[in-house]
Automatic annotation (TrEMBL):
GO annotation, biological process: transmembrane transport
Span of domain ABC transmembrane type-1: 60-280
Protein name per UniProt: Putative spermidine/putrescine transport system permease protein
Compartments it resides in: Cell membrane; Membrane
Family: Belongs to the binding-protein-dependent transport system permease family.
Membrane topology field: Multi-pass membrane protein
Signal peptide: none
A single cellular component GO annotation: plasma membrane
Organism annotation: Thermosyntropha lipolytica DSM 11003
Length: 299
């Protein structure tokens, strides 16, 4: 009995500390967000204010747009890279595939603040890439597109894809390590190409870790502060930047509003994540490795 529960006992202090601080912070934020009325009374004044605020909904839609696009682009790019690593592992060399996978993890070494600064100096209208194109006579002096501090949020999206795509690859790569080469050889005997084998036999196995990685990326990018603060615009602001500026504005009456924005954002993230989980779960039931519905039976 003891060997089974020993790992859980060892991590219990760290787990309790994390849960206490996390839940304590959320509970404290809820209590303070409900204290916008008279002292000692529970009031939903802060929530009524933000729900009727045009600035809040503009910030919410802006944040939802760049967070969703960041997740989609990073997921598709991560899947494409994993397919490439799968091809290298099966057809060329497994050690080369592992080396490339580790090389792709380099962006994870940079903090998000550093990643934002890298994107800024690379893609700003007078950054390194604009100067390089101008030196090569491939672009005019003022013809470089606005990709940083732009209204759509392309700079934020590029920075998040740069940081989160390696994380998605890290979550997906162990799946292809468990697939023996004999499966691919059997597929070739049955006349299935490598792309078809990946789509019909490997991709269904990637759906669970892809869902988990996408949820983590979406939840983080939706409430992250550093990159939108550096690469965003003054209006509409990202949710985290909007709440931060309200909280530090100097007026104590704005602090319940800032906390109500964060609590509301957490609830909206939970609702969106549950909705996406239900949709992808139903879709995932129609995609099973080795089933008749996808035209490939595992040998």
């Amino acid at each position: 009995m003891w060997p089974k529960i020993k790992p859980y006992i060892l991590i219990l202090p760290a787990l309790l500390t994390t849960i206490t601080l996390f839940l304590g912070g959320i509970f404290g934020g809820i209590i303070r967000s409900l204290s916008a009325g008279k002292p000692g009374e529970i009031s939903f004044y802060a929530y009524a204010q933000i729900f009727s605020s045009q600035d809040f909904w503009a910030s919410f839609l802006f944040t939802l747009r760049y967070a969703a696009l960041s997740v989609l682009i990073a997921s598709f790019l991560g899947l494409a890279i994993v397919f490439g690593l799968f091809y290298v592992r099966m057809e060329i060399n497994s050690r080369l595939s592992l080396f490339l996978q580790r090389l792709l993890q380099l962006p994870m070494l940079f903090p998000f603040l550093v990643a934002a600064y890298i994107i800024f100096i690379l893609l700003s209208p007078h950054g390194w890439l604009a100067r390089l194109l101008f030196k090569l006579n491939l672009a005019g002096e003022n013809s470089f597109p606005l990709l940083v501090n732009d209204p759509f949020g392309w700079g934020i999206i590029i920075a998040y894809v740069f940081k989160t795509c390696p994380f998605i690859i890290l979550m997906l790569y162990p799946v292809i390590l468990k697939i023996p080469k004999a499966w691919l050889e059997a597929g070739k005997v049955l006349g299935i190409s490598q792309a078809g084998f990946f789509r019909k036999a490997v991709f269904p196995l990637l759906i669970p870790p892809l869902k988990t990685a996408s949820f983590i990326v979406f939840a983080y990018t939706f409430l992250a502060f550093e990159i939108p603060y550096i690469l965003g615009i003054t209006y509409p602001k990202a949710i985290a930047v909007y709440a931060y500026q309200l909280y530090t504005s100097g007026s104590l009456s704005d602090r319940p509003l800032a906390l109500a924005i964060i609590i509301t954002s957490l609830l909206l993230i939970a609702m969106i994540s549950c909705l996406v989980h239900i949709i992808t779960r139903r879709w995932g039931k129609t995609i099973k490795p080795g089933g008749k519905e996808n035209g490939f039976q595992t040998v």
